[in-house]
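Progress report, Aim 2. The chain analyzed during this reporting quarter is listed below.
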Amino acid sequence: MDLTAVIQQVRTYCTALAGRVGGAADFETGTESVIAFTDPTTGKLAYPSAVVIPLEDDAQDNELMDGLQQTVTETIGVVVEFDATADRRGQGAVSQVEAMKYALHSALLNWHIDPTRSARGLYYAGGELLTFDRARLFWMFRYSFDASITDADGFQISGDPLTNLTGSIYPSGTIGIGDVITIESSVG
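Predicted structure tokens for the chain:
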């Protein structure tokens, strides 16, 4: 999934984050370098903020015996950092999760990130608390979409296509019954 496109979609359509969205390869890198958005007037960290990270590609079995038709569920995580300084138990921060979930839904649910690969847009795949300390709470929202891959996406054999087959069947045995049978088949 194109993380840059997801980041842009969230920046544009999730007003609750006010554009404070970045991307990273994993959660640890994102929290250290991306989520540290500061308010230009106060110099303090600005909350909430988010980082978009890739999570997994889950490939289903090939559906065809003579070709390739496969569904791959691609999943990303939107990790949102909430301010937990006012309530060291985290109750105040976690109470913001529900509103943020629906703000992210308004930006991502049913969005067709790649219409050539899927008839459906992104769907919600769940959420969970990642970590919490006395200052911050990190909650991850997972979004997925089911991409289709086919023969056209794979290696293409170059050269002349097979269009004609000829074979001969020779009767066996000692009696010598019948003539050789020749079979010819054309494709196309």
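The mean pLDDT is 85. The chain is about 20% helix and 35% strand. These observations will guide the mutagenesis work planned for the next reporting period.
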